[in-house]
Amino acid sequence: MSEKGFDQKEAIRILNEILEVELAGVVVYMHYSLMVFGYNRIPITSWLRDQANESMQHAQEAGELITHFGEHPSLGIGKLLESHKHDVGDILRESLQHEKAGLLLYKDLLALVEGKSVMLEEYTRRMIFEEERHIGEVDKMLRKPGDIQAFQSS
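-> structure tokens emitted (154 positions)
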């Protein structure tokens, strides 16, 4: 099945890259959840495992779209960020990097399909909303208590 008006081959390439990044998210968030120690372990571990589950859902959605267009989902996995630092702040900064990389892919897909495929445009806008919201939450978690200013990261 194909829709006219956008480069389907490029859309599939981006969707496969999204699939790989989201699968990497499953791995890193699960790993992070195993490496948290200290007084706040339980809520942080729970939050990280929720993020792993969300990444799995996002990977499944990307894969379903790839097969919708009659293509083959990648068996690859994206870059695994691992600094071997397991302080919660380090984990959150790595998480922020990961989420920003995914957000860029969703924005690339939106630029490709905007005004050309309602299905892909709606999917991509929803994913951008979710990723931006998630980045905002991580940013808030990185702030010191009482700080209203956004966390500044590279």
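The domain at 8-73+80-142 is CATH 1.20.1260.10 (Ferritin).
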